[in-house]
Structure to design on (454 residues):
């Protein structure tokens, strides 16, 4: 069957059919390993109890943006009162497929729109032995077999993650797949399926009359410059970059930073250490080590080039819980600083307690920021613990590692709180085990993220 509007980067190639359904996903090179084996990936919409799969029966125009491999697709359905404007591309450096969808409500009332994306993978050109599962941390669906993994998620209205999902069996005993489950507007879940499987995900958006909303199935990337480098401690620096005004992220998320080392471009990921409320820039904060990447960072100055790709991650907090506790060590404070600053700036009523461990009092990152936030927010308490105080006479904080006894003493209502812990991998593993096994805190109340160094 002929294919329309193919897109690719030399390693990953995706082709659509005349119904604007993905039909081919070639990887790791064009013509080898078609992970759909020609089967259809459907794209549908539910509005006001009515459902339809987008197809050539719509007023559908498939095209490219001039002189590019960026698609320009418009779809109009008069009966549903909706128009869609879509762009599809594959990142030319990373093997990432990105779809941007703008929905316009053509009716005269506010309505809920649900977009459904169906995935009929045949990984390694076979339906046998595939696995599809829901990842609650990334709020995404992942399909895999062997060393081939495919992750599907999205962003809308500043929120990352899917709203509904379903995994299931297909092509076996007459089962058609999860796309049939989507046609009533509600997906039935099933967090994992194995064998000959497919999946469907959904995103919900409310749109006012004659207004538009945007769904991005992944991130945005852009080139920028360093605007400021701030010395936080003797071996920790913050790096700030100019960003467009419409850049959005959640407190606690991370982004990818590409810098030039000699003639090479090298990419690493870092957590935002600023809050979304601090506009005009994004910032990451890093301990400077002897690695080549770290030493290059150490030499950066205002005006130097960088490329950013964002946002990523589900280790976030925007006031969803009345009481939270943060357990952090060293440079793991960066996402927590972002969360605390957001809560304070937004004047949320969340009660926050932070226990922050470091080697010495001279190693406390963001000490002045935390002091100001604690002074201005009666619902915030910060507890410091150091391995060894340099000035034992003047040090007023705790000493030693964070322990169960310390948590019970400083957070007597710990059973009522949701915990966020972040720091070096060994520390985080210890904290999670301590909370689960010794303190018997429910798994659902523990959020964590590791900070490997480089």
């Amino acid at each position: 069957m002929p294919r329309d509007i193919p897109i690719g980067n030399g390693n990953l190639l995706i082709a659509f059919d005349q119904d604007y359904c993905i039909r081919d996903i070639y990887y790791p090179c064009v013509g080898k390993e078609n992970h759909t084996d020609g089967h259809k990936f459907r794209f549908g919409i539910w509005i006001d109890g009515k459902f339809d799969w987008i197809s050539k029966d719509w007023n559908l125009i498939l095209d490219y943006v001039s002189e590019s491999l960026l698609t320009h697709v418009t779809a109009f359905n008069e009966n549903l009162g909706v128009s869609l404007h879509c762009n599809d591309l594959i990142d030319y450096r990373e093997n990432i497929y990105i779809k941007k969808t703008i929905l316009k409500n053509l009716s005269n009332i506010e309505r809920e729109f649900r977009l459904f994306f169906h995935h009929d993978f045949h990984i390694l050109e076979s339906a046998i032995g595939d696995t599809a599962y829901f990842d609650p941390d990334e709020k995404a669906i992942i399909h895999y077999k062997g060393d081939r993994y495919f992750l599907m998620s999205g962003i809308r209205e500043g929120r990352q993650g899917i709203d509904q999902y379903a995994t299931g069996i297909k092509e076996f005993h007459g089962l058609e797949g999860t796309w049939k489950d989507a046609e009533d507007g509600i997906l039935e879940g099933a967090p994992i399926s194995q064998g000959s499987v497919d999946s469907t995900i959904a995103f919900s958006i409310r749109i006012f009359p004659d207004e538009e909303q945007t769904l991005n199935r992944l991130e945005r990337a852009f080139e920028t410059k360093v605007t400021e480098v701030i010395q936080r401690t003797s071996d920790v620096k913050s790096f700030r970059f100019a960003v467009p005004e419409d850049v959005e992220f959640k407190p606690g998320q991370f982004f990818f930073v590409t810098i030039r080392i000699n003639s090479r471009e090298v990419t690493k990921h870092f957590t935002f250490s600023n809050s979304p409320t601090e506009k005009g820039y994004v910032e990451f904060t890093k301990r400077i080590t002897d690695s080549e990447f770290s030493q290059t960072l150490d030499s950066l100055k205002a005006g130097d080039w960088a490329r950013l790709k964002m946002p990523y991650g589900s280790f976030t907090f925007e006031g969803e819980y009345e009481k939270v506790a943060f357990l952090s060590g060293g440079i793991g404070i960066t996402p927590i600083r972002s969360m605390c600053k957001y809560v304070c700036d937004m004047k949320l009523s969340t009660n926050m307690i932070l226990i922050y461990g470091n080697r010495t009092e001279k190693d406390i990152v963001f000490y002045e920021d935390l002091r100001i936030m604690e002074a201005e927010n009666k619902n915030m308490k910060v507890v410091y613990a150091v391995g060894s105080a340099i000035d034992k006479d003047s040090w007023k904080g705790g000493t030693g590692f964070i322990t169960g006894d310390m948590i019970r003493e400083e957070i007597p209502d710990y059973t009522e709180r949701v915990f966020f812990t972040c720091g070096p991998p060994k520390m985080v593993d210890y904290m999670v085990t301590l909370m689960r096994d010794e303190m018997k805190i429910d798994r659902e109340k523990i959020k964590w993220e590791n900070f490997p160094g480089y």
